[in-house]
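Example record

The entry below shows one chain as it appears in the dataset: sequence first, then structure tokens.
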Amino acid sequence: RLMAIGFQCDITSVMSFMMGDALSSKNLSFIPTVASTGGAAGHHAVSHHSGDSAMVTKFKAMVQWEIGLMAGFVQKLKSMTDYDGKPVLDNTLVMFGSELADGNRHNHDDKPIMLAGKLGGLVTTDRHVRFPTNRDYTLVKTYGDFFITLLGLYDVKVTNFGDDGKEAIAWNR
């Protein structure tokens, strides 16, 4: 709630909130599915499920809980009115993601990133963009390109990002 009020009151236009679950052994047994299966209840331990169906079920419950927190925050921004009479979410961009696509394999391919909000109309909503997993970065848009684009939305001009970011992505196509 405090972060949403910060946006609404224009106290800040950028926030970072990191849960740090990927390396955490924080006990998540308050999530019913996690508690009912017993055993490990920390995000990191459960993410290394080795394909065990009970652990995969537990891990899915943990991720769904995290997504629920994100959804609640986005709904809060959508329900609050901004200075221009529009929902705060319309003037905001919220990014939610993980450093890995698959914690079990420490895989970075096809990493999910979710954006919510329109950033004052700079971002087209209701889209799903999938980056090809082709490793020839001269042929496809990459996560580095995504971050160049994201920085550009905030008027931060960069010409490269990481090993693979070479150019911005056209958002409003």
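Notes for this example: The mean pLDDT is 83. Residues 56 and 94 are 27 Å apart (CA to CA).
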